[in-house]
């Protein structure tokens, strides 16, 4: 994608998310988003970066996962939603051939079918479950406006095909998208922190001029920039391992940025009147999806200690 196309797409997406009460799925369809993704797969990054900055709720992540599973899914019989594994220390699937347990991002009001990855004796399968076959309840979340629901059920269709490779490919795509969304939310939070510290005065000058504050803000900026560099590399090679590292670094950036913005903003950063808490909460929730960064780092380290080969070294462009 050339710079002119990238700028045009980013501007269109920013304008779309700034609309009042926008229906994101309908707006993307009007933009011809499926054709855009076919021509420019990395445009997904632009969408999710704006999604994070806008604190939007949509089924855009579901669309990414479904696209990755296209070869193993039957034709849809209505509106679909993806059931994501619950965050767990094993970072594995939380649904199996006997029971379903996971989260749906945007509620079930207009959903007809659920796409559920399940653990099998041979690996991973993907089943389609009627929404009437599960029970649901709101997820207790740090986000006040969370739309997530937890779904559980015991009526699991028979897994007819092994789909480990397809699920791994879909997860890699989802992790790249989530990394972009986390980076977008963290970037917006950092900008709020810069604006706050530039306008708040102590000892006759903005606190942004104090070295300690500058060091904290710089630390967050470096973490976000490092995550962005790794994400660029992940889009360049489309390798699942690189996608894993990209999301892990995005989650790390979230932890560093959260610590930074709350420290430099003080009490106002956690007040309901200030928007900062919403970006902090959203980024933390996004980190938990498709494996939290601390678990991912532990898994990567364990694999290396167990003798897993380092297939390649990714060079991050810092220009």
Q: Overview of this structure, please?
A:
By secondary structure, this protein is mainly α. The protein folds into 2 domains: 90 residues, Beta Barrel (Butyryl-CoA Dehydrogenase, subunit A, domain 2), CATH 2.40.110.10; 140 residues, Butyryl-CoA Dehydrogenase, subunit A, domain 3 (Up-down Bundle). The protein is built from 10 helices and 8 strands. The strands form 3 sheets. A 3-stranded mixed beta sheet has the order 1-3-4, with helices on one face. A hairpin with a 2-residue loop joins β3 and β4. α5 runs antiparallel to α6.
Determine the CATH topology of the largest domain: Butyryl-CoA Dehydrogenase, subunit A, domain 3
Major pleated sheet: 3 strands, mixed
Task: Give the N-to-C terminal Cα separation.
Answer: 18 Å
Fraction of residues in helix: 40-55%
Provide the CATH top-level class of the largest domain.
Mainly Alpha
CATH architecture of the largest domain: Up-down Bundle
Strand order of the largest sheet: 1-3-4
Low-confidence blocks of residues: none
Q: What characteristic shape results from the CA principal axes?
A: globular
Domains, number:
2
Count of β-strands: 8
Radius of gyration: 20 Å
Number of helices: 10
Q: Would you list the SSEs in sequence order as H and E?
A: HHHHHEEEEEEHEEHHHH
Mean pLDDT comes to 91
Task: Identify the CATH homologous superfamily of the largest domain.
Answer: Butyryl-CoA Dehydrogenase, subunit A, domain 3
Structural class: mainly alpha
Query: Which percent band covers the strand fraction?
Result: 5-15%
């Amino acid at each position: 994608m050339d710079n002119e196309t990238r700028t045009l797409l980013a501007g269109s997406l920013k304008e779309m998310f700034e609309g009042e009460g926008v229906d994101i799925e309908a707006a993307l369809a009007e933009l011809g988003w499926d054709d855009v993704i076919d021509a420019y797969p990395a445009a997904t990054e632009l969408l999710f970066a704006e999604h994070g900055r806008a604190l939007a709720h949509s089924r855009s992540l579901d669309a990414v996962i479904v696209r990755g599973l296209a070869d193993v899914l039957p034709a849809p019989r209505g509106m679909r939603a993806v059931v994501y594994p619950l965050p767990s220390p094993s970072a594995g699937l939380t649904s199996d051939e006997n029971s379903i347990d996971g989260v749906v991002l945007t509620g079930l009001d207009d959903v007809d079918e659920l796409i559920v990855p399940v653990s099998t004796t041979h690996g991973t399968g993907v089943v389609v479950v009627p929404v009437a076959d599960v029970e649901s309840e709101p997820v207790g979340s740090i986000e006040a406006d969370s739309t997530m629901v937890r779904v559980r059920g015991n009526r699991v269709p028979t897994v007819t095909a092994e789909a480990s490779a397809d699920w791994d490919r879909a997860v890699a795509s989802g992790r790249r998208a989530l990394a972009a969304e986390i980076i977008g939310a963290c970037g917006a939070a950092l900008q709020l922190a810069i604006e706050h510290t530039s306008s708040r005065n102590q000892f006759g000058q903005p606190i942004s001029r104090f070295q300690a504050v500058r060091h904290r803000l710089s630390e967050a900026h470096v973490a976000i920039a490092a995550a962005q560099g790794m994400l660029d590399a992940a889009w360049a090679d489309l390798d699942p391992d690189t996608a894993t590292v990209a999301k892990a670094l995005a989650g790390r950036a979230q932890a560093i940025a959260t610590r930074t913005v709350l420290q430099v903003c003080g009490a106002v950063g956690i007040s309901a009147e200030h928007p900062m808490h919403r970006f902090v909460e959203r980024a933390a929730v996004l980190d938990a999806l498709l494996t939290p960064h601390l678990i991912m780092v532990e898994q990567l380290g364990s694999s290396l200690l167990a003798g897993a080969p380092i297939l390649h070294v990714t060079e991050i462009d810092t220009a």
